[in-house]
Amino acid sequence: MSEVGTIGFWRDPLGRPGPDNMAVDSWLLEREEAPILRVYDWRGEWASLGYFGTVAQARATMPGVSLVRRATGGGLVDHRHDRTYTLVLPGGCELAGRRGGESYRVIHSALAEALGEAGMEVRLIEEDAPVESPTCFEKPVAWDLVEGRGRKVAGAGQRRTRKGLLHQGSVMIEEGVDGDAVFASLAGKLAREVKRVNREPSGEELAARIDQFSSRSWVERR
Questions:
Q1: Distances (CA, A) of 30 to 25, 131, 146
Q2: Beta bridge partners of 18
Q3: CA-CA distances (angstroms) from residue 96 to 43, 93, 99, 142, 187?
Q4: Which residues does the chain have with pLDDT short of 70?
């Protein structure tokens, strides 16, 4: 399926608070000149809502959980129970230039293969489910992944800028499945070559971005 030549695979070793995780992704989108897949953890109990999400609704849905707003779209995601990854594709990458639905389909097709090889039975759905919910995993949309009974197991939000494509994904990994191995396999399915990298930014590089994602004006903008 290789969509790109070489991709960097960064298993971020630090568990970070919500604003810090969003700041790192923003930093990667701004500076990376080659595709990179970041896999990361959360420090503390966090949920993220999409750029167009309503913060009052999010707080009513998940009371007591810290909230951060993403720069990407999509629904409300509870990060206490998922595994998260970010794919950054610079503007010169062919996959970054595809329409939103098509790039989403390609990435999730590769993820479906990786999960299948790990023993999880999943499939792509081709149209939005007739469900209304602010919660991402209660509302499957086209090219999400679901298990045999139709329960959603993987979704994502995307954002395109002049720099390229930011794809932030969330996966419900079954107990006993090695999530890091799944994401490494995903990288290998998207690219012909995978290089392990470390892109740890300095505190100075992240400071302004953390301030943005932690500010009340950003989180409560809707």
A1: 9, 35, 32
A2: none
A3: 30, 5, 8, 18, 15
A4: 1-2
Domains and CATH numbers, the chain: 4-219 (3.30.930.10)
Bridge-based pairing of strands 66-69 and 152-161 is unpaired
- Of the CA atoms within 13 Å of residue 205, those in its CB half-sphere come to 11
In 3D space, the residue among 172, 15, 187, 195 whose CA is nearest the CA of residue 86 turns out to be 187
pLDDT in tens, 2-56: 578 899 999 999 999 999 999 999 999 999 999 999 999 999 999 999 999 999 9
CB 104 within 8 A of CB 158: yes
In 3D, which of 186, 143, 172 has the Cα closest to residue 35? 186
Cβ neighbors of 56 (< 8 A, separation 6 or more) are none
Q: Residue 141, SS3? A: coil
Q: What is the pTM of this model?
A: 0.94
The alpha carbons of the chain give a radius of gyration, in whole angstroms, of 16
